[in-house]
Specification:
With 231 residues, this protein is an all-alpha fold. Helices cover 82% and strands 0% of the residues.
Length: 231
């Protein structure tokens, strides 16, 4: 009841702050499950296992192994590696492999980082809405005092100040968790992206160096269609 009373005393901008509160806390939950449950750091062991197939020129087995990783922590890396292995098995050149793997890497990074930046924006907007409510509350307060009876001035002044302070407080209550979550999630995103980028580069060079003078096993028709890089 206390919070409801203070919310009602905060003026019209409280409703805008409340809307950003819903957006912020919804995004905080979504980002937590995405970054800590779904997208975890790719394992170096994936590269080691893939390297065994690449070193033998057995890209059919390498592609099949990558396809089995869709539900693991290395799923993003596996999708990128599958493209590189498929292209090399089809006789693609180094530049084409690099371009397609870079394209796939960019897509994976976008999927990891696509919503995190909104938390920073929501936090800043909530702060500014609280400040705007403070200013309008003070304007209402002084305007009311200027035209009020001396006996009512103290009441009207305190009402306007209460509106201003409540709006500021609620704006900060929304902004502080949003900005803290933004910093934490951005740091987590940077770690995920750095690990994924490094392992992608290592797998790309593995494909190039280990197959430069080694004949590769030709994909069967079924394997070729299943391992198409656009899938």
């Amino acid at each position: 009841m206390f919070l409801v009373q203070k919310f009602n005393e905060g003026g019209i901008f409280m409703y805008a702050i409340f809307a950003f509160a819903i957006l912020s806390f919804t995004l905080i939950i979504e980002r937590y499950f995405t970054l800590y449950k779904k997208e975890v750091e790719a394992k170096s062991s994936f590269r080691t296992q893939l390297l065994n197939f690449i070193s033998q020129g057995d890209f059919t087995s390498a592609i099949r192994f990558a396809e089995t990783q869709n539900s693991t922590e290395s799923a993003s890396l596996a999708r990128i590696a599958k493209i590189g292995c498929t292209l090399r098995a089809q006789g693609a050149g180094d530049e084409e492999i690099q371009a397609r793997m870079d394209e796939a890497l960019s897509n994976e990074i976008h999927n990891i980082d696509r919503n995190t930046g909104f938390l920073g924006m929501f936090g800043n907007v909530a702060t500014l809405l609280g400040l705007l409510g403070t200013i309008t509350g003070m304007i209402h307060s002084f305007a009311a005092v200027a035209s009020a009876n001396p006996a009512d001035r103290a009441t009207m002044l305190s009402r306007g100040i209460s509106e201003a302070m409540n709006c500021t407080a609620f704006g900060l209550i929304v902004a502080i968790p949003a900005l803290i979550a933004f910093a934490v999630y951005q740091n987590k995103t940077d770690r995920l992206v750095a690990k994924l980028t490094g392992l992608t580069s290592e797998i790309f060079h593995d494909i190039l160096f280990l197959t430069a003078k080694r004949p590769t096993q030709t994909l069967s028709n079924n394997s070729r269609s299943e391992a198409h890089p656009m899938n």
